[in-house]
Amino acid sequence: MPPRHANQCVNNTNIYEYYVNDIYEADSRQNRLFVHTNNLEQLDIQAVQQIWGSLVGNTIAFSIQDKELLLNACRAFIFFRLLLLLAGLALLTGCPASILGGRVVAQDLAARGGFKPIEIETAPFVLSGWLRPGTGQTLHVYFEGDGLAWRSRTRPAMDPTPSNPVSLRLALTDPTAEPVLYLARPCQYTEGEARRGCFTPVWTHERFSEQVVAAENEAVDQIKARLAARSTALYGYSGGGSVAVLVAARRSDVVFLATVAGDLDHELWTRTHGVSPLTGSLNPADVARAVAHIPQLHVTGGADEIIPPEIADSYCARLGGAQVIRETLPGLGHDGAWEKSWPGLLSRYRSGN
User: How far are the Cα atoms of 184, 243, 286 from residue 142, in angstroms, in the given order?
Assistant: First the structure.
């Protein structure tokens, strides 16, 4: 097992390895980040250069006989990695801004958009989120996508925090004056005791399980009651679109439902990509009839190879004569800049704008 803290280095037959997978744990405890140094200016730049030239997967391995030089190298790597994150540049390691960076990016985006952080206790999970206060009777809820569910086709991630919080970016551009809640999926952005119930099935094959959907629905209930809202509007990106539909199916207060690049029929999606089925997960396509009375907007990307438009088409075909609008944005891939088109789409298709 790799060390769990960013300031740890281990001696392994004269090969010192610093694992970056779990660097996020030091994010909110910067006193631990540089625990061995009092002067960052003294960090050894040659050691940093040595690191850049010896990256192997998610591990930095290099032979250094002087342990103090090794510690300096580790600290220097962390320091420069944070600078890269804050500059919005891609990391040179196999662990991009998906862990520590995901938190930094989300915190910065939310703060600049007037969103305040919240933690919501539900029966199985502690859910993280950000809330933008507003005036009005409808609570607008944005569910995050699957995040970093897998590191490779066969290797699940240890933490599903997204490196690029697309649903948060969409929430930031929502022109409504009513309250907006950005709600993370279970185990995203959480640390320490708040990670109770966090096991890899929660963000892999059981990502849309009854337990997950119930927790997200309970979180919506709590914030709606706190704000004394009368209705909800639900939105979701990618797997968050699945959650939006599944939550809508068990509520009677939803006045609008919208997804962006949504995985709205995961049985078709897994068959399309030839991957293992999401056993233990509920399928949005199976509850299409239960939400057919809700005005809906489903947006897909013409160049999306991850969740192609056919997935949303399959779901929409089961809606019958529902009030549904399908919009495909030409040339946009799964990780595209959806937020650029989002305000215009809402202004066109959501009543009340």
Answer: 8, 10, 22
DSSP states along 314-353? HHHHTS-S--EEEEEETT--TTS-GGGTHHHHHHHHSTT-
| Angstrom distance (rounded) from CA 113 to CA 181 | 12
Q: What is the pLDDT of residues 258-301, one digit of tens each?
A: 999 999 999 999 999 999 999 999 999 999 999 999 999 999 99
Residue 191 pLDDT level (bands cut at 50, 70, 90): confident
**How many Cβ atoms from other residues are within 10 Å of residue 87's Cβ?**
7
Question: What are the residue ranges of helices labelled H in 14-53?
Answer: 30-33, 45-52
Q: What is the pTM of this model?
A: 0.74
**pLDDT score of 157:** 85
Q: Judge contact between 185 and 146, C-beta under 8 A.
A: yes
**Span 81-107, mean pLDDT?**
54
The residues facing 327 across adjacent strands are 299
Q: What gap in Å lies between CA 62 and CA 117, rounded to an integer?
A: 39
Compute the distance between CA of residue 353 and CA of residue 342 in angstroms, rounded to an integer: 13
Helix count and strand count (H, E) for the chain:
10, 12
Task: Look up tokens 């939105």; give the residue.
Answer: 235
Size (the chain), residues? 353
Query: How many other CB atoms sit within 10 Å of the CB of residue 77?
Result: 22
From the list 189, 168, 209, the residue with the least C-alpha distance to 120 is 189
**Separation of alpha carbons 222 and 199, rounded Å:** 24
In 3D space, the residue among 270, 248, 244 whose CA is nearest the CA of residue 259 turns out to be 244
**What is the Cα–Cα distance from 36 to 270, expressed in whole angstroms?**
47
Give the pLDDT of residue 155. 85
- Model confidence pLDDT, tens digit, residues 22-62: 222 233 333 222 222 333 333 344 444 444 444 333 333 33
Nearest CA to 6 among 21, 14, 146?
Answer: 21
